Request: fold
Amino acid sequence: MGSYFAQCKTTFYCYDQNSVWAAADAGVRRHIDYTCLMFERDYMIIMDSDELKAWHEVGHATVCLHLGGDLDRIEFLEGNSQGFAVARGCYVMPDKERSVACGGFAAEFYLLQAGDIDGVDLNDPKDVAEVSARVFSNAWKDHQDFIGRTVTEDNDFTKEEKEEFMNYAIIRVAPIFDLYFSRMKLVVSELLAARSIEGLRMRELL
Ligand SMILES: [Zn+2]
Reply:
């Protein structure tokens, strides 16, 4: 699989430079399509990368648009050493705010479950514990919005609050991404390339 993946990668880069289309005969073209499909299956995201941050924000924004809300834009905060991204002007009716708050966590969970996060073995309890702690910490602010209170060092999230947030994200929110997943990938690539994407453009892509 390793060498095949390397081969796919090479082919994918060739494919990316449009010149291949002009030169390729039908046979080669089929081969390219096939290897690109294989490459798609090997789609891997690195923990803590900008790409994962983009997915987190696109998760919030997708849930927001799906529930009939509005979105100004998603953007990376340039000059921020931690490379934070934000979804701005995500407005939904109050009864739907909890779903939008779960959107980032749910998107990260969705990728994990699909095996799309690099270096995480879902059959290894230690890996799963580590990665779930990271995903929870990425949603630290969202989780507080969800439960409607501010946590402090002496008044941290309770076990019940963690379970409620996680179950809501997994059961109620993550299935929404089944409807949009391939188009969310397009949104993520545009966001990564331009460092921001307008709400209208995202609506168009979805
Ligand atoms: Zn978030």
Q: What stands out?
A: The chain has one domain: 6-205. DSSP finds ten helices and three strands in the chain. The pocket of zinc ion is lined by residues 56, 60, 104, 139, 142 (CB under 6 Å). Residues 1-41 have pLDDT under 50 and may be disordered.
